[in-house]
Amino acid sequence: MSLQGKHILLGISGSIAAYKSATLTRLLIKKGAEVQIVITQAGKEFITPVTLSALSGRPVISQFFASDDGTWHSHVDLGLWADAMIVAPATASTIGKMANGIADNMLVTTYLSMKAAVFVAPAMDLDMYKHISTQRNIERLKSDGVRIIDPTEGELASHLEGKGRMEEPENIVAILEQFFASGNDLEKKKIMITAGPTYERIDPVRFIGNFSSGKMGFALAEESASRGAEVTLITGPTALSTSHPNIVRVDVESAIEMHAAALKIFPLMDVAILSAAVADYRPEQVADEKIKRSGKENLTLSLVSNPDIAASLGEIKKPEQLTIGFALETSNEEINAIKKIENKHFDYIVLNSLNDQGAGFAHDTNKVTILSRDGKKRSFPLKSKREVAKDIIDTALKPSTIDNEWLYL
Ligand code: C5P
Fold this sequence. Notes:
Blueprint: E1 7-12, H1 19-30, E2 34-39, H2 43-46, H3 49-56, H4 75-81, E3 84-90, H5 92-100, H6 106-112, E4 117-122, H7 126-130, H8 132-143, E5 147-148, E6 152-155, E7 161-165, H9 169-182, E8 190-195, E9 200-203, E10 206-208, H10 215-226, E11 230-235, E12 247-251, H11 255-265, E13 271-274, E14 281-283, E15 303-305, H12 309-316, E16 322-329, H13 333-344, E17 348-353, E18 365-366, E19 368-372, E20 376-379, E21 383-384, H14 385-397, E22 407-408
Helix pairs in contact: 1-3, 1-9, 4-6, 5-8, 10-14
The chain binds cytidine-5'-monophosphate.
């Protein structure tokens, strides 16, 4: 594999492991990449820009302005130039700043302008790595879509043994090569995703809704789009935003609106992922005026059932189209999920349980089991929703990559 012509932005922060960045630069250049280095002030205490610019063949950037002639270094241009950014070594401080958007140096500012995939290779002492604050920041970066290259175990600069050694440059290069080999593996795939809750109006100021945040559906949209898919995201009301150019967003409010949008869009799609928490019922009548409390001891709402979007798509689905549903069950989970595969003609169903800590609505994490139409299952540990999105996509759309990881039901 090669990195021929790839633009790699290498961020270096202040850790003893910065000496490995020289080898990393050399290996990237040998593989045909162009490497632009951005280093923090502390990074320069560990390795000199002279070494790095000699190896990369480009001036090393560390300040917003060049001190001699006042030229401005454009982090925006760097964000557009790069095909990937790798921060190696990433200290606890740099990870914390990236996770919280503290753009007080050129490295973090460039990260905030980055359009390409970002990799982070942490390097620090074992206790710093284990610290709840570092772990929280790493989790946040993961859910922002950053790929963390886990540190390895071994002797650390403090002479203590433990986890915190930056991954070896050879392995980082292999991870980048793998990324570019599969980076656009969903190119040209048309994927429709439903997300979020639906709101069913009672009167002009009230509705029946649910606790869905839309996070799982948005994570699926970002993951698919970042792998080259053309995504149409039909979402109910949510506070979330998307910026990826491959995502077309369709905002809807009610189940009826979501149903209409999905039926119109689905025939043009290769895949539909139905992660929306659609209200099963809506008020039979929507009052024109705000319903007044006065004089009423009780209020009874009459509800009628909403269309089942998944089942409707199941009926018009062509053999070459794939549908993936979700099930949130509180009892007899697998049996109920398998019934749903049948009733709604899903190819796969993603089962998440409200009984699991950190899984389900509003959390940034989820714990899922994926069941297939042909009677197989894969169970996963608690992960960030972005990582869960990757597992779902790989399972359903890249089955050959996970062939021997199934359990037969
Ligand atoms: O039957 P249940 O609501 O548990 O099924 C969940 C699955 O069906 C999810 O994939 C959900 O997005 C989808 N669904 C739908 N339209 C409905 C109800 C559920 O698409 N009205």
